[in-house]
Amino acid sequence: MVAQEFIVDLDKPLVFQVGRLGEAYQEWVHQPIVSKEGPRFFESDFWEFLTRTVRWAITVIWLPVECWSISMSTRMGHSLHEIALMVAFGILVWTLLEYSLHRFLFHIRTKGYWGNTMHYLLHGCHHKHPVDGLRLVFPPAATAVLCLPFWNLLKFMSTPSTTPALFGGGLLGYVMYDVTHYYLHHGQPTSEVPPKS
Ligand SMILES: [Zn+2]
Ligand SMILES: [Zn+2]
């Protein structure tokens, strides 16, 4: 008897279904559904709420944290010039981190139930629903959790008075990245590309 292929029911919450696709997950996740209507991820309203983020939440939530963090290094006696260097270095660390995560983790090939499920939550959902307006920026709850290892990484590389400014810079790099990424998918340029002279 031939095993019947599992088919994802798009009208039901998706997250706990995609794992069952097994090896077929890779092909499924790379066939995008181009609709601004987002699918439901979870049965539970609480978890569902955490997966949806309005784009302005990113700046509203994280900019104050950045300012506070950077000002902490200022209060510990660093000059403006030093702070600017630290912030720039933090942005660089973020950039390298994003590149590595995207290259080695976000596009990892999975086929097991939990592997597929985790990949879908982390990045697969973006390939499947690339213009889902509420799932384009990273959910703040997840960012908050990831801030801890990021802080520890920077702490390991720096001194107590430089860590906060580096962290603020890294977070600033993240916000610039996420806002640009959102614009690339959803932006409506208001002016034409200037003609070649
Ligand atoms: Zn990707
Ligand atoms: Zn994208």
Automatic annotation (TrEMBL):
<keyword id="KW-0256">Endoplasmic reticulum</keyword>
<keyword id="KW-1133">Transmembrane helix</keyword>
<keyword id="KW-0812">Transmembrane</keyword>
<dbReference type="GO" id="GO:0006631">
    <property type="term" value="P:fatty acid metabolic process"/>
</dbReference>
<dbReference type="GO" id="GO:0080132">
    <property type="term" value="F:fatty acid 2-hydroxylase activity"/>
</dbReference>
<feature type="transmembrane region" description="Helical">
    <location>
        <begin position="83"/>
        <end position="101"/>
    </location>
</feature>
<keyword id="KW-0560">Oxidoreductase</keyword>
<keyword id="KW-0443">Lipid metabolism</keyword>
<dbReference type="GO" id="GO:0005789">
    <property type="term" value="C:endoplasmic reticulum membrane"/>
</dbReference>
<dbReference type="InterPro" id="IPR014430">
    <property type="entry name" value="Scs7"/>
</dbReference>
<protein>
    <submittedName>
        <fullName>Fatty acid hydroxylase 2</fullName>
    </submittedName>
</protein>
<keyword id="KW-0472">Membrane</keyword>
